[in-house]
Amino acid sequence: MSTRYPPRPPATRLIAEDRGLSQERQTRQAPHGQHAQRPPHASPAPRASRSSRYRSADELGRLERIETVRGGVPARLLSALADDMRIPREQLYTWLGLSRATANRKIRDDALLNQDESERTLGLARLLGAVERIVAESGAPAGFDAPAWAAQWLQDPVPALGGRAPAEFLSTADGRAMAASLILQMQSGAYA
After folding, report:
1. To 10 degrees, what angle do helices 173-188 and 115-137 make?
2. For the chain, is the Cβ count within 10 Å smaller at the N or the C terminus?
3. Which residue has the higher pLDDT, 69 or 2?
4. What is the tens place of the pLDDT at every residue in 145-168?
5. Cα(16)–Cα(191) distance, integer angstroms
6. 89-98 b/e with 16+ CB inside 10 Å = b?
7. 74 has which bridge partners?
8. How many angstroms separate the CA atoms of 146 and 132, rounded?
9. Which tens digit of pLDDT belongs to each residue from 37-94?
């Protein structure tokens, strides 16, 4: 007896709604060795406000995250992350352990990231979403820019990491989990 699973979820709400890529999951399967591209008729959706752009990535369920990563995240999310965090794309690629040439080519070709690249990219988007959620729960101070704040925090030495910056650990799942844990400790008032 085969088990029926619900249909695949659309691309993360972060990607679909916030970055104007609602048609991304309707991507054609490309032959082996070629990159999948968005259909030419796909039209962008309106962008979400800067203050909550990444919350939806933080709110994804485990199964949604798995399906999104398996299906591939649009490479242009890398550009959006770098722009929103106000850092050069090359710095973002270094943090995530991505090849600069490959990432730039996939952005240029409007392609999807592979599973490993998607997991790293979505993991960072989730981290930014956690910061946005914490700020919103604390009263959402007007003008607070969560992605820019997170970029600065990721670069600063943290005593809990032996004086190393959290960005040094973003290329691994455990490193991203460690950074998320430190952010949650800040919310609870624990010293990190």
Report:
1. 0
2. N
3. 69
4. 999 999 999 999 999 999 999 999
5. 36
6. beebbbbbeb
7. 112
8. 6
9. 443 333 333 334 454 689 889 899 999 999 999 999 999 999 999 999 999 999 999 9
Q: Which residues of 158-171 are buried (b: 16+ CB within 10 A; e: fewer)?
A: beebeeebbbbbbb
**Quick one: average pLDDT of 160-180?**
95
Assess contact for 112 and 35: CB atoms under 8 A.
yes
pTM: 0.75
**What's the 3-state SS for the chain?**
CCCCCCCCCCCCHHHHHHCCCCCHHHCCCCCCCCCCCCCCCCCCCCCCCHHHCCHHHHHCCHHHHHHHHHHCCECHHHHHHHHHHCCCHHHHHHHHCCCHHHHHHHHHCCCECCHHHHHHHHHHHHHHHHHHHHHHHCCCCCCCCHHHHHHHHHHCCEHHHCCECHHHHCCCHHHHHHHHHHHHHHHHCCCC
In angstroms, the CA 183 to CA 59 distance is 16
